[in-house]
């Protein structure tokens, strides 16, 4: 793949934005697409406003693409309704342009299967609506590849954290309180191991899948450090900041901070993730591509620095 091949990134949330930064940093041609106007794109990155839920808009937004990165998310309560259409439109556009599709995915398809050691071989055992939806969409992507219609590669991530990540269990409901001496939110049993994926490692991993064919037709776990308990992560944050953290623990899905009633009503079926161990193993990706996760302390330090700047300007 040459530096003139066009990489089109769909979605301007923290993942899409991080993917764009990673691709641009590699000197690649990048177009960034979102429903809303995109501001502050890296120098040289083309921006395009489009609603990918409309088939013709998806085709136009991805014109001339060599690789399409699917990092679109929608409001949590609309995912079951909206995401199948978006997936179909992306696959249709990719087939039209003979482009490869790289999909950012979650751990939802696994459900409650083998939470202590989740690998790419773990059974897809989801019973939740959103978990079964993700599994169905993932099979579509894999079937598109196996049929020869569209080349696909999929990267799965645990819960995000990192610069720009707000709507996460290790995001805006936690770090501002941890930095200012106010209460900081945590979910469920925080003594259990729980995987968190650093957003810049996610971006690097997806960019790697987009620039090589060695990952095509497969699901990969993006580089993520071995799971610690959330309490252990809190201790690292306390050590970095020099401040004790007052934890406000949610043991059930109810509104809190950035997580409103509508979101939490939909999230209730996924709350099992905070009642059982969740250790996502990424050694297959690491050994295949030679890319390893950022050391956790370094990643948390970067995140804390970003939140300090964020709090200073808000």
Walkthrough of the structure:
With 314 residues, the protein is α/β, with parallel strands linked by helices. It has two domains: 6-158 and 197-224 and 281-289, Rossmann fold (3-Layer(aba) Sandwich); 161-193 and 227-278 and 294-312, UDP-galactose 4-epimerase, domain 1 (Alpha-Beta Complex). Helix content is 38%, strand content 18%. It contains ten helices and 13 strands. It has helices at residues 14-25, 55-61, 79-97, 129-146, 175-180, 199-210, 230-241, 261-267, 283-289, 296-313; strands at residues 6-10, 29-34, 46-49, 65-70, 100-105, 152-156, 159-161, 183-187, 193-194, 196-198, 219-221, 228-229, 246-250. The strands form four sheets. It has a seven-stranded parallel sheet, sandwiched between helices. Helix 3 links the parallel strand 4 (65-70) and strand 5 (100-105). Helix 1 (14-25) packs across helix 6 and helix 3 (79-97) runs parallel beside helix 4.
């Amino acid at each position: 793949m040459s530096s003139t091949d066009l990489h089109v990134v769909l979605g301007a949330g923290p993942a899409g934005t991080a993917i764009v930064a990673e691709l641009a940093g590699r000197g690649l041609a990048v177009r960034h697409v979102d429903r809303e106007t995109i501001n502050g794109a890296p120098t040289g990155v083309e921006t395009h406003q489009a609603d990918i839920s409309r088939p013709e808009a998806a085709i136009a937004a991805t014109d001339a693409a060599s690789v399409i990165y699917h990092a679109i998310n929608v409001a949590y309560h609309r995912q079951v309704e909206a995401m199948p259409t978006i997936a179909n439109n992306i696959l249709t556009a990719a087939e039209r342009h003979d482009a490869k599709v790289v999909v950012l995915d979650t751990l939802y398809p696994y459900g409650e299967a083998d939470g202590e050691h989740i690998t790419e071989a773990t059974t897809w055992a989801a019973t939740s609506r959103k978990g079964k939806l993700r599994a169905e969409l993932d099979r579509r992507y894999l079937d598109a590849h196996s049929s020869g219609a569209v080349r696909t590669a999929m990267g799965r991530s645990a819960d995000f954290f990192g610069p720009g990540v707000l709507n996460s269990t290790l995001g805006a409901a936690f770090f501002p309180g941890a930095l200012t001496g106010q209460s900081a939110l945590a979910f469920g049993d925080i003594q259990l191991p729980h995987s968190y994926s650093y957003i810049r490692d996610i971006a690097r991993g997806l960019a790697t899948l987009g620039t090589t064919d060695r990952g095509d037709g497969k699901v990969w776990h993006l580089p993520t450090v071995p799971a610690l308990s959330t309490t252990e992560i809190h201790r690292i944050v306390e050590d970095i900041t020099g401040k004790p953290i007052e934890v406000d623990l949610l043991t059930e899905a109810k509104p809190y901070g950035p997580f409103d009633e509508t979101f939490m009503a939909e999230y209730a079926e996924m709350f099992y993730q905070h009642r059982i161990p969740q250790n996502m193993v990424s050694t297959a990706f690491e050994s295949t591509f030679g890319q390893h996760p950022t050391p956790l302390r370094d990643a948390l330090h970067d995140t804390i620095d970003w939140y300090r700047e964020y709090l200073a300007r808000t």
